[in-house]
Design a protein that fits this description.
With 430 residues, the protein is an alpha/beta fold. The N and C termini lie far apart (65 Å). The radius of gyration is 24 Å and the shape is globular. The protein is built from 15 helices and 14 strands. α1 packs across α2.
């Protein structure tokens, strides 16, 4: 359950944000902070729904959840303690970082919140779309927040929205994130369709079911560019950072290569188990499907458990598998992709449906490219050896390929400074 205690309210005006316009679903609202009765009902029901788990996890997002203030989250912690029945509680909060002052960071450290910090790369790339309500850049404020998190020893990861601009600079983005100390990196591709004319619900960004005339927004990442972005980052990571930097896309790929179910919903065969909770208690099928037709109910009137197990939500989750186009069913990387997120499945397929993923070319490029190193890492895991051994394996493969391509009188690719024929190529027939 992705809880949005401040609804879509945010102190930034990121051009690519799909959630800001959700304010239009609640006309007349002036106080977006989740009421105390809704908050307590959510916390109690969420804990009860995970009765078989020793640890219950909460995810707080927005909009911008820190707009609710530290006092609100102190109440969150108190209610969790009250209803925990002795079970451990974990909290994660996704934030743009702008409000993370000393008090916030002290609170997050004391209660061991995991912080997801939105950071789109170096200053020029981050500030391309991530601006405040006055159109001013936000990079420096975010970096100050990061420094405070580090100083207070708050666990954090970074979430990078891969868009039309930063997709052109994969290594600049990755190296920047790595060098700032982000050991856990998430790359989220942004893909949105804008309606030519606003829809009856006043939203301009469409869900895949909507056949209204639309165009892909100019900030959306292009499929070929996203594929090359992932490949370029992987090539750097697999040579020097395996076991030191964890990139969610690569971790989930390794799960698929070892026969495990993906831990990220977009790469599972079915979905429907990651719902969104709005500030007033409304529950939607998914964070990316906050549209009237996907509203399941309100937790003040219906139980979370009943909504999760409802026929509507079950059908929503199964549709991901059942509506997979024929060309996807026959695809050699289906086991790792499963058609990715239904939100992105609006392109015409060969069988006449409009269920082909917009990013299909990107995932084919990436998953096929990583097959050999993923297979190697999977084999290392199967034999209880560290997957990081792949770095030595790739280095050896690189040397072999370079040696094969080099002439006998060329400098040896091993770096010795001597000719190939007097070094690694000694004894190899001319």
């Amino acid at each position: 359950m992705m809880a949005k205690p401040s609804g879509p309210l945010c102190n930034l005006d990121c051009q690519y944000c799909f959630y800001l316009e959700k304010e239009r679903l609640y006309p007349g609202t002036t106080d977006w902070r989740m009421p105390d009765d809704v908050l307590e009902s959510f916390i109690r029901q969420h804990i009860e729904a995970h009765v078989d788990l020793p640890v219950v996890s909460f995810a707080w997002q927005g909009g911008e959840p820190t707009l609710c203030g530290v006092d609100f989250f102190e109440r969150v912690v108190a209610l969790q303690r009250q209803h925990s029945n002795g079970r451990a509680i974990e909290n994660a909060i996704q934030t743009n970082g702008i409000l993370l002052d000393e008090r916030w960071c002290a609170f997050l450290a004391e209660h061991e919140f995991l912080v997801g910090l939105s950071l789109d790369g170096p200053e020029d790339l981050h500030d391309r779309y991530r601006v405040d309500r006055g159109g001013r850049p936000t990079f420096r404020a975010v970096m100050q927040a990061l420094e405070r998190l580090v100083r207070h020893r708050v666990a954090f990861n970074t979430l990078t929205v891969v868009n039309r601009e930063n997709a052109k600079h994969p290594l600049d983005v990755y190296r920047f994130l790595r060098d700032t100390g982000s050991g856990f990196i998430q790359f989220i591709p942004v893909v949105e369709r804008a309606a030519a004319v606003p829809t009856p619900d006043a939203l301009s960004l469409l869900d895949p079911e909507d056949q209204t005339r639309a165009h892909v927004t100019p900030w959306s990442v292009e499929p070929a560019a996203y594929g090359e972005f992932l490949v370029a980052v992987f090539e750097e990571w697999v040579r020097r950072d395996v076991g030191k930097v964890f990139v969610q896309q690569f971790d989930v790929s390794l799960e698929s290569w070892t026969g495990r179910e993906a831990s990220v919903c977009v790469f599972r065969e079915t979905c429907g188990r990651a719902l969104a909770l709005e500030h007033n208690g409304d529950v939607y099928a998914c964070d990316h499907f906050v549209y009237p037709r996907y509203r399941l109910g309100n937790l003040m009137n219906e139980s979370l458990g009943a909504m999760v197990e409802s026929p509507a939500q079950t059908a929503f989750g199964d549709a991901k598998r059942d509506r997979l186009p024929g060309e996807c069913r026959q695809c050699d990387v289906r086991f790792a992709c499963h058609g990715e997120c239904p939100k992105h499945r609006f392109m015409p397929s060969k069988d006449g449906s409009r269920d082909l993923n917009y990013l299909c070319a990107a995932y084919k490029r990436f998953f096929r490219h990583v097959d050999e190193p993923m297979t190697f890492m999977g084999n290392e895991l199967a034999h209880r050896r560290p997957p990081a051994n792949v770095m030595a394996w790739v280095a050896g493969r690189d040397r072999a390929r370079a040696l094969k391509a080099a002439g006998r009188n060329d400098p040896c690719p091993c770096g010795s400074g001597t000719k190939v024929k007097h070094c690694c190529g000694r004894g190899v027939p001319a």
